[in-house]
Amino acid sequence: MRLPILHVFLWLLPALTTSTREMVRLQPNPTVSAACGQRVTLNCDVVYSLDKLSIKHMKWSFNQRPLCSVDAHENVTAHSGGVITHFHCNYTRGRLSLVLHDVRPTDTINLDFMCKLKSDRGAKHINTRVELQECCAGVQTETTSGASICIFDKVHEGKDVHWFHGQQSKARLHEGISTSRHVDGDGWWTITSILKHTSSHKSFKCSLMGKSGRYLRGALLRTPKSAPQSKSSLLTSTWSLLCLSIYLLWC
């Protein structure tokens, strides 16, 4: 009789192992792609039948710091998450959702979000990672007769700034360009690029290229034209200087 029982146990072992392994899963994927400035929801689902499983504790954490948890009575508690500050959590019968309000580069620094479950059938955890897409929130411009300036704000994975003559030109400019970068506490970069030029009758275009090779943001700048002074303006200026000279001599 021992041999058939052993056979039955060996036959059931893969199914038991699979059930334990799949007790917790993440949807939609272990890696979630996030657009800059948008909300991202990470769902931790209990796959095992809730009629046969008693949940004692579930939680989301980041970099070993708890973000939120739910107890056996389905009470949700939010914790101080360190670098993760803008978030909230929801719980609905076996699903603990972590909602990130505004994903920042510091939220995706090669670290995983972990969902952990404690139940009457043991403990289980699984990880997911949020990948922030390359982006640029906006560009500010300023131009004079001698220089054009482009300032790209809230940049993630920006590679370089390219300058062109006008809107349609594909020939890059290489001389007279200086570019600087500054990062803030949230991991956003500000990229400032200055093009020095002598022509006052042309337009220039600045374009920020991402690491993928595509352009993230661009702007067209028109240099101010230096209008020649009219004869009346010249006479007025000369007369004013003459009056000022006479006044100074008498004083």
List keywords for this structure.
single chain; 251 residues; alpha+beta; Immunoglobulin-like; 2 domains; 49% strand
3D structure, described in words:
There is one protein chain. The protein has helices at 2-21, 231-250, and strands spanning 24-27, 31-34, 40-46, 55-62, 65-71, 76-78, 87-92, 95-100, 113-119, 122-132, 135-143, 147-156, 158-165, 172-173, 177-183, 189-196, 203-210, 215-222. With 251 residues, the chain is α+β, with helices and mostly antiparallel strands. The chain folds into two domains: 24-132, Sandwich (Immunoglobulin-like), CATH 2.60.40.10; 136-222, Sandwich (Immunoglobulin-like), CATH 2.60.40.10. The strands form four sheets. The protein has a six-stranded mixed sheet, with no helix packed on it.
For the record, the CATH class of the largest domain is Mainly Beta
Rg over CA atoms, rounded to whole Å, is 32 Å
CATH superfamily of the largest domain: Immunoglobulins
* Class by alpha and beta content: alpha+beta
Briefly note the CATH topology name of the largest domain. Answer: Immunoglobulin-like
Report how far the terminal alpha carbons are from each other. 129 Å
Instruction: Please list the strands of the largest sheet in the order they lie side by side.
Output: 2-10-9-4-5-6
Query: What's the pLDDT, averaged over the residues?
Result: 79
Task: Estimate the global geometry from the Cα principal axes.
Answer: rod-shaped
Counted up, domains total 2
Question: Which architecture of the largest domain does the CATH hierarchy give at level 2?
Answer: Sandwich
Largest sheet: 6 strands, mixed
Number of strands: 18
Determine the fraction of residues in helical runs and give it as a percent range: 10-25%
Strand content: over 45%
Order of helices and strands: HEEEEEEEEEEEEEEEEEEH
Stretches where pLDDT is under 50 for at least 5 consecutive residues are: 8-21, 226-231
